[in-house]
Amino acid sequence: MQPIKMVDLYSQYLHIKKEIDQAIQDVIVSSVFIKGGKVIDFEKKLSDYLGSNVVACANGTDALQLAFMALGLNPGDEVITTPFTFVSTIEVLVFLKLKPVFVDIHPETFNINENELEKVITNKTRAIVPVHLFGQCANMEAILKIAQKHKLFVVEDAAQSLGSKYSFINGRMQQSGTMGQIGITSFFPSKNLGAMGDGGAVICNDPELAKNIRSLANHGMKERYNYHQIGINSRLDAMQAAILEVKLSYLNTYISKRQETAAQYTKLLQEIPELKLPTESLFCTHTYNQYTIQTEMRDTLQKFLASYNIPTQVYYPKPLHLQEAYKFLGYKAGDFPVCESMSAKVLSLPMHTELQKDQINYIAETIKRFFTH
C-alpha cells in the first residue's frame, strides 16, 4: 500500500501530466502571462460549465472582497454569516468596514441555519453569506426567500462546493455559486478544482454587475488608463488559468471519484456508534471537498491515527467569534453552541481523487480498532 496523504496533488498531476505540461508550454511560447489568452479561455469554459458569468481573480479572498465592493455597501452595514468557516469569509467584511453578524449552523451539514436568520436581521442588514461548507450547499431556497422578503443581497461562498448542484422545489437545478446575486470560489490547490498556486473567481448572473466586478479587479479601469472607480489589482495568471482549463475538463470525474470514496467510507464506518458521519442534504449533491466525521474523542482519535501514519485535519478548531482578532465583535463563548460543539468534535479524513480502496479500508479498519481496543 502506498503512503496515505491528506491530499495527493502530485499523483493527480501524473495522470494528466502530458496535458498540463503542454498547457504550461503553450503559455510560455505565447508569452501572454497576465490576462488575455488562457485566462480568457478558462473564464469562458468555467462560465459555460456554471451557466453564469465568471471573473477570474488572484484568490478566493479577493473574490469575496470584489463581491462586496461591487454591491456598493456602506461602512457599518451588517452582513450575516456563520462563525464556522475559514477566516476569509469575515476578514474582507472587516477590511471594508462592514459588520459581520453571526448565526449558528446545522449540526448535520455544518451549514448556516436558515431558521436563525430573521432573528438577527435589523434595519442595517444588507446581505447574507451562506458558506457551502465541505462540499454541499446551504438551504438556498429558504435563504433566497428570506433575502427577497427583506431586500437583502445573497453572496454565496462556494469556495469548497464548486460543482455541487442544487435542486429547487419546482425542479429547477442550479450550480453552487450561481443562485445569489454573486458567488465566489477558490482554486486553492486542495480544492476540487485546484490550481498549482493560488486563484479564485467571482460568479455573477447579471452581465452588467459582472462587468463592474471585472473593472474593480483591474484597478477600477473601464478603458485603458481610464479609471472610473477605485479598484484593486487581482489577477489570475495565465499559467494557473492554463492548468485550471485542463483540470476543468476532469472536474465531474474528480467529483464522482470523491463521492465514491465518501460512499466507501460511509459503508465501512456506519456501524460505529461513537461516530457521526457526514449527512447529505436532500436538495443538493455533495462534492466532498472534505469528508468530515464527528466524535467526542476527536483529539485522541487523531493522535491514534497519526501513530498509524494516517493524516487528518481539523476544520475548524476554533470558531471565528472566539478568535482574538474578532473579539471586538462582542461575542462570547456559548453564543453559538453548535459551532462550538462542532469545533471540538470534527475530524476530516483523507479525501482526494487518488485515494485507493486499500487505503480507505486501512483507514476505516484503524478507526474501528481505536473504538474497540
Structure characterization notes:
- It is a single chain.
- The chain is an alpha/beta fold and 373 residues long.
- The chain has 13 helices and 13 strands.
- It has helices at residues 9-15, 17-30, 37-50, 60-70, 88-95, 117-120, 140-150, 207-217, 238-248, 251-269, 298-307, 337-345, 357-372; strands at residues 53-57, 78-81, 99-102, 125-128, 153-157, 165-167, 173-175, 182-186, 200-204, 221-223, 226-227, 291-294, 346-349.
- The longest helix has 19 residues, at 251-269.
- The radius of gyration is 21 Å and the shape is globular.
- The two termini are 24 Å apart.
Can you lay out the helices and strands and say which pair or pack?
Elements: H1 9-15, H2 17-30, H3 37-50, E1 53-57, H4 60-70, E2 78-81, H5 88-95, E3 99-102, H6 117-120, E4 125-128, H7 140-150, E5 153-157, E6 165-167, E7 173-175, E8 182-186, E9 200-204, H8 207-217, E10 221-223, E11 226-227, H9 238-248, H10 251-269, E12 291-294, H11 298-307, H12 337-345, E13 346-349, H13 357-372
Parallel strand pairs: 2-3, 2-4, 4-5, 5-8
Antiparallel strand pairs: 1-9, 6-7, 8-9, 10-11, 12-13
